Amino acid sequence: MTQIPLEDRVALEDLLTSYCLAVDTLSDMDALLGVFTPDAVCDLSGIGLPSLHGHEGIRGFFDSVFADMTHHAHFVSNFRVDRYEGDTASIRAYVMGMGRSRDGNDVLVYVRYFLDCVRTPDGWKVTRFFEDALMPLPGSLDEIHGKR
Amino acid sequence: MTQIPLEDRVALEDLLTSYCLAVDTLSDMDALLGVFTPDAVCDLSGIGLPSLHGHEGIRGFFDSVFADMTHHAHFVSNFRVDRYEGDTASIRAYVMGMGRSRDGNDVLVYVRYFLDCVRTPDGWKVTRFFEDALMPLPGSLDEIHGKR
Amino acid sequence: MTQIPLEDRVALEDLLTSYCLAVDTLSDMDALLGVFTPDAVCDLSGIGLPSLHGHEGIRGFFDSVFADMTHHAHFVSNFRVDRYEGDTASIRAYVMGMGRSRDGNDVLVYVRYFLDCVRTPDGWKVTRFFEDALMPLPGSLDEIHGKR
User: Minimal CA–CA distance to A124: which of A36, A43, A52?
Assistant: First the structure.
């Protein structure tokens, strides 16, 4: 098991939760962008969606997501620290993500998140986000988000 | 992120888990009431159910729930400390709650819990419990619990 | 609440997560066996499956599981320390477990895990694993795994 001070472990788990809470507000772009460094890569290609570059790329994609969805809920579990080197770390978790779009389409995914993180003066931030699927992805994922 | 000693963070997360474990016993009213201060408010109005006042109010509602249900399971994730002031704290979490009633009706909800907590000589207790829905609530929730 | 040093609590939670991650690889038998002491009992009788004895028993069952399944995902929540005595501990958790078999059969269970653990020179290990059902079990569980 990777050794890591408990304070950092908790901070990293909170960072992951912060991403999910922000995504689920469907409105709070500042909270969402605050999870990432300005030049972060949010790579959604593992579930067939785009790879987003920097705050502008992330904002562009999630502006559309926030506009399209009426409900969002992302449940984290199985948090794990894969790597810790003092000022950088890699973590992973399982996420059950679900939502309903304005046109009434439901989506439910079971995925893994992989986050590379860096300690900044403003706390831990994500430099690279990647996710892949644990279970077969529903067609509604592409119908709702894939058009971008 | 709210600063909180790790011992208190863990104790608060355990308190939340204790509520779910107690609710899922479908029998252990002492364990359930032990989560709350005697004058606690358990406000379920955010999901269309009653607001319960004090141990007597909580007991009255959950006596019926325990009698009506054959299965209960409440899964916690996304634990978060919103406020910490030494002897009081506010926490939140996501919960996937499910159950089956004696008449075979299934219910499944995706909700958020918001708990105000106080440190007592007997450990942390809940003074106010509130929940609201993350995803649209099923009609079976009202069919099973709403008649009270 | 059971008193336990935070380092041990985290290590025990990591041990539980390690079991789920290993089971979900559908290939990494060494990681799976590494969770258990050589003479551990993995008792699945609480969900109608066999009780497995030692690494050989566990390997035999999971060789078949790994061969039969194309997808696996086990989500942990509601972690709880039931007992801690320095070098031994008992923990529990809720798990939402799901999978798809090669013949396209889907399975989804909501269960509780109960683990007896021991501190070894190689970290905490499971000496006894037991699980039971929180919600009615689907018929597909027996169709997929029960033939062994």
Answer: A36
CATH of A6-145, one of 2.110.10.10, 3.10.450.50, 3.40.50.80, 3.40.50.1370: 3.10.450.50
With contact defined as beta carbons under 8 Å apart, do A91 and C91 qualify? no
Whole-angstrom Cα distance, residue C58 to residue C60?
A: 5
Residues in a beta bridge with B52: B42
Q: From CA C139, how far away is CA A106, in angstroms rounded?
A: 26
Q: What is the pTM of this model?
A: 0.96
Q: Is pLDDT above 90 for C94?
A: yes
Give the neighbor-by-neighbor strand order of the sheet with C88-101.
Answer: C51-53, C36-43, C123-133, C106-120, C88-101, C69-84
pLDDT tens profile C7-53: 999 999 999 999 999 999 999 999 999 999 999 999 999 999 999 99
Total CB pairs under 8 A between chain B and C:
39
Q: Residue ranges of the domains in chain B? A: 6-145
DSSP E strands, B26-139:
36-43, 51-53, 69-84, 88-101, 106-120, 123-133
Q: Is A77 in the C-facing interface, judged by CB distances under 8 Å?
A: yes
Please answer whether residues C36 and C16 qualify as being in contact, where contact means their C-beta atoms are separated by less than 8 angstroms: no
> CA neighbours within 13 Å on the CB side: how many for B129?
28
Contact criterion met (CB < 8 Å) for A80 and C14: yes
pLDDT digits (tens, 9 = 90+) for B75-102: 999 999 999 999 999 999 999 999 999 9
How close does chain B come to C38, measured CA to CA in Å? 32
Provide mean pLDDT across the span B38-67.
Answer: 97
